[in-house]
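Checklist before submission:
- one chain only
- standard amino acids only
- sequence pasted in full

Submission:
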Amino acid sequence: MIFVRKGALRLYWLLRDGRRRIIGFRGAGEAIIPEEGQQHRFSAQAVTAAEVRAIPLTPFHAAARSNSTVLVGLHRQLARERDAAYELIAILGRHDAEASVAAFLLDLDDRTSSGTPGEWLQLSILRADIADYLGLSHETVSRVLTAFRQRRLIEIARSRQLRLLDRAVLVQIAGKGDVDRKRIGVSA
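Returned file contents:
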């Protein structure tokens, strides 16, 4: 198991034609849980200065058996990963660039913010990485982010920081209104 202490990593597959397919991101406090066996289907690459810690599986399994807190933390991360995978499937099936980028920004906010409205988020990944993750072109991602900025849904700082200004509208654009009503304080 690889535990990310600082920075951000991208997880990706190399396709047969040499292109990469980004399948996820990991930030500080998150782990990469390897598959069983010797063959690994994906690779990880730092997108910022990163510090990681490799934890051999045998000691990890021993810690999990003796400390339920380890299992609870692992369960939470696996549930988040499952939800992110389902969300990505829904996003890619939608074929709507605005909905895809809005869902990505909401996920970024959910994963990295402290929950304070209007908090600046560190956008540690490049727009090209976002495009590869969402199956869009770099130009499309840039165009959507510019449109969101012009509509005052987000604010982007030069130091690669981003702030969600109107989360409720982004939730509507992403088509997540029914799922996220409690989070944004809207009653059913």
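Reviewer check: The chain is about 45% helix and 20% strand.
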